[in-house]
Amino acid sequence: MLGPQVWSSVRQGLSRGLSRNVRGWASGEGKKVDIAGIYPPVTTPFTATAEVDYGKLEENLHKLGTLPFRGAVGGVCALANVLGAQVCQLERLCLTGQWEDAQKLQHRLIEPNTAVTRRFGIPGLKKTMDWFGYYGGPCRAPLQELSPAEEEALRMDFTSNGWL
């Protein structure tokens, strides 16, 4: 098992790399975007005998802690269930090197994405699917439907970014 010093090092590197501004990439200008809790995936390395290679994992985590995380590959795209065209557009903008437009679009997607993943989870995703004309359906136990106050907060996350 990895010791606390490794995880501490990774956490510091991630916070350093993920603390960015909306305008003025690292200049200190602009509004801060809270992307705490969003981490890139770390694959588990194995030895030839199918054992976890903890030495290699530790090495990978140290490398990970030094990256600026200006880009990413892959993702958990819950938001694509409701804003699929926009998520695909973000990929196209990145692939064609249109970084300023990609950054603007990404910043409009962060708040709604956080709402349907971390903040309201599956109940929030189901509710927004209903709003966008898809079938989200009722939540299965033990999940509960959103309260009216939560539903209004979710609606604001989409409305304030121009999606509703």
TrEMBL record:
<dbReference type="Pfam" id="PF00701">
    <property type="entry name" value="DHDPS"/>
</dbReference>
<dbReference type="GO" id="GO:0008700">
    <property type="term" value="F:(R,S)-4-hydroxy-2-oxoglutarate aldolase activity"/>
</dbReference>
<protein>
    <submittedName>
        <fullName>4-hydroxy-2-oxoglutarate aldolase, mitochondrial isoform X2</fullName>
    </submittedName>
</protein>
<dbReference type="GO" id="GO:0008840">
    <property type="term" value="F:4-hydroxy-tetrahydrodipicolinate synthase activity"/>
</dbReference>
<dbReference type="GO" id="GO:0009436">
    <property type="term" value="P:glyoxylate catabolic process"/>
</dbReference>
<dbReference type="GO" id="GO:0005739">
    <property type="term" value="C:mitochondrion"/>
</dbReference>
<dbReference type="InterPro" id="IPR002220">
    <property type="entry name" value="DapA-like"/>
</dbReference>
<dbReference type="InterPro" id="IPR013785">
    <property type="entry name" value="Aldolase_TIM"/>
</dbReference>
<comment type="subunit">
    <text>Homotetramer.</text>
</comment>
<keyword id="KW-0456">Lyase</keyword>
